[in-house]
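Many groups now describe folds with learned vocabularies. In that spirit, our science desk offers one protein's residues alongside their backbone shape tokens.
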Amino acid sequence: MAKYTDSAKELLEYVGGSDNISVVTHCATRMRFVLNDSNKADLDKVEEMDLVKGTFTNAGQFQVIIGNEVSTFYNEFTKIAGVGDTSKEDAKVAAKQNMNFLQRMISHLAEIFTPLIPALVVGGLILGFRNVIGAIPEFGPNGNQTLIELSQFWAGTHAFLWLIGEAIFHFLPVGIVWAITRKMGTTQILGIVLGITLVSPQLLNAYAVPGAEAIPFWDFGFATVEMIGYQAQVIPAILAGFVLAYLEIGLRKVIPNVISMIFVPFFALIPAVLIAHVVLGPIGWEIGSWISNIVYSGLTSAFGWLFAAAFGFAYAPLVITGLHHMTNAIDLQLMSEFGGTNLWPMIALSNIAQGSAVVAMIIINRHDEKEKQVSVPSAISCYLGVTEPAMFGINLKYGFPFLAAMIGSMTAAVISVGSGVMANSIGVGGIPGFLSIQADDWAMFFVAMAVAIVVPIILTMIFSKMKMGQNAFERLGKK
């Protein structure tokens, strides 16, 4: 008998049997189930299993925290359950059957931006480093020079790194349109080409449009079209990408296969480029400016502290619903309009606050070895920007740590916004996030970060003494 045979049989029974499993896969520590009927799963019995360290449901998937041995357990489970292996993409597709319309829309948005996040994080770190060596006059004999003024090496490094920064942010529309064609299953190279037409050097750079004396145009005799680029613009790229994808999908349905290789790309790409520059580009620009102006004005107004408090308090619940993915587009639009974002620092602080609440639970449950197997890795990953294990595995399980983290996040967000902290871009959403903060704002961000660490720890311990999590502790004691 294999090591996990009995546990696998138990879990199979508690999730409703093989017939109730649509798809099952796993990640680094969790089993991910898409169940045909979630009501058939006995959550209490699943959580009472010795092997199981917690459960939660997210994005239409029932997730069971197993730990580092999950891959071995998964192999044993699939043999006993008779459920075939599948990919994470298949699981995502199947999970959408358990989502409502809003959840599906948010899932689509997440699938667009998730492949871009590694590049955006790198870009944020690069911009932050360029700020340190090029914008802080704290060096030299008199302490009033920047590093690039003192050293040719740093001056050359500063100029060289912009090559990467420009590629990531100015040419962002290329990545967005590519991500859409990838998600929609259409021809990705056409998406890349369409994206390039939005940022071509032939066009007037988006950053030069506000101060331009005259805007060049294409003259078709009966009409003219302005030659405006959409560098760093998010919404025009999203609209253009979906038009291209749906044009290609529609054309493939009506054009015979024998000639589709020639005519589908031709009749999809040319109209998409024309529509992008004539209609969608200008409309998307206006929508993006409208959204970014509202957010920026709200955060910098006399009532900015109130907006910050609401966002800081509510961001973690947004993660539960998946609505937090919308902030990626807003952050990128703010960067395009204002050269930075005052929204992202609050996101990093919220992540830190959730991790700090877990640290408090580690101290409270320091004699519970099973709990530490979940809480210690969760706290570490949370401080590095991945919050789901901490939130679903610990904080939501007890309730009061989640509330303590929300209050800590709210307090830190008010400090961040009140002191005008700006980030160069999206970055690592945890303690290393300071590297993406504009160098002049580091001091106040560190103050806000300290608050996001200390307040949740103190409040979690106070709440535990007040027996706010009594029912959860009683259930844990029965295990």
Summary: The chain has 20 helices and six strands. Residues 419 and 444 are 7 Å apart (CA to CA). The beta strands are 21-26, 30-35, 54-58, 61-65, 217-219, 224-226.
